[in-house]
Amino acid sequence: PPDATAGRDAAGGMHGDPEMEMAHRAWGAVMERRAWGGAVLTRWPVVVLDASPARWCWVTLPGASRIHPVAHTVERVGDAELSVCAGETWVATAVVPSYGRLGLLRLESALPVEDRGRGRLSFVHFDVELAAATGRLWHEPLDGVVTRLGRDGVPGPVIDRAQRGLRDLDLRLAERSWPFDGWLEVQAERLARRLAA
Asked: Between the N and C ends of the chain, which has fewer C-beta atoms within 10 Å?
């Protein structure tokens, strides 16, 4: 299996479909999930498959150590995870069991990924409860979201952007547009085959 710490050729050939516009060479990096104030909530190794201006896509490999600096704990990743964001304020992560079928889908409200240099990537995570059910987005009432993000010091324009991201995510789920148009399922099967090779 490709090693997330092995450098830019770590997962070469995992994507292999020009239609998906994936990067020609995957590369290893460290992803950081941050709070608005800058604190690192989670840090873990990933393999980046796409870093185009309009889209990020990365894989978290089974066995990776996900560090939680604030809680002083370390979590061992079980199944592979495939994460995507499209320049909007959300991140979608599909859990990929070894048999290749798409498993749990996790959704996050977050600012787009930022390349911090030296193999470090990060995104700002917003504390918003999200879930996908019957093809639609569920989230807690927006009034509560706005109040809590404002209390956390998030500026009004950024809160507005987060709300636009929720609407974008809801529309993509309802219309089954990328990445919920079957793209995640196809990539999950390819990833499982690659890891099993």
From this structure: C
Coil/strand/helix, residue 197:
coil
Bridge-partner residues for 106, per DSSP? 93
| pLDDT for 129 beyond 80 | yes
| Percent of the chain predicted with pLDDT > 70 | 84
Give DSSP secondary structure letters for 109-121. EEPPPEEEETTEE
What's the token pair of residue 28? Answer: 């290893």
d(CA 70, CA 55): 29
Judge whether 24 and 45 are in contact, CB under 8 Å: no
Phi, psi at residue 15, to the nearest 5°? -90, -70
**Helix residue ranges per DSSP H, 19-155:** 142-151
pLDDT bucket at 25, cuts 50 / 70 / 90: low
- Looking at residue 5, its pLDDT comes to 33
Contact 166, 146 (CB under 8 A): no
Q: What does the block give as tokens for 175?
A: 């219309």
* End-to-end C-alpha distance for the chain, whole angstroms: 7
- Residue 164 to residue 171: CA distance in whole angstroms: 11
